[in-house]
Amino acid sequence: MGTAAVPICPGFGTNQTMIVGIALFEFHIPHAQSLKEKRSVVRSLRDRLRGRYEISVAEVGLQDLHQRTRLGVAVVAAEGSEIERMFDQIAHAAEKESDALLVGWNLEVTHFEEEVPLDGMKFE
Fold first, then answer.
1. Which of 40, 52, 73, 121 has CA 20 to 30 A from 28's CA?
2. How far lies 123's CA from each of 29, 42, 110, 115, 116, in Å?
3. Rg of the chain over CA atoms, in angstroms?
4. pTM here?
């Protein structure tokens, strides 16, 4: 599930200032018999992940299904290896969940370099 632990940005330029990792995690919640039960599991999982890691987490899909959910997770770091490490830890924690079974996940990484122009902001 997910991506292999391979360097995300080998040889990336020395002017990098920010790397953003965005992932979708899909879960099956076999014991949820209603949307209310599902929301309780999702809220608990979301809060545990937020409390354990410095990340943003939100339910972003499958809200109308009572046994499935998709969580969007975002991480910001200065190093690609930090993004890798963080998502490996998040995936490992998700796999250990007892109330929600991790079905799969997908990661995308975006790089912002120091020279990226910021529209509307001029400093001299």
1. 52
2. 51, 44, 25, 13, 14
3. 17
4. 0.75
H helices present in 9-119, as ranges? 35-52, 80-95
Q: What is the pLDDT of residues 18-74, one digit of tens each?
A: 889 999 999 999 999 999 999 999 999 999 999 998 899 999 989 889 899 999 999
Q: Is the pLDDT reported for residue 3 higher than 80?
A: no
17 touches 111 (CB < 8 A): no
How far is it, in rounded angstroms, from Cα 1 to Cα 78? 25
Q: What's the CA gap between 19 and 11, in Å, rounded?
A: 14
3-state DSSP of 58-88: EEEECCCCCCEEEEEEEEEECCHHHHHHHHH
Q: Which residues pair with 71 in a beta bridge?
A: 25, 59
Tokens found for residue 123: 């400093």
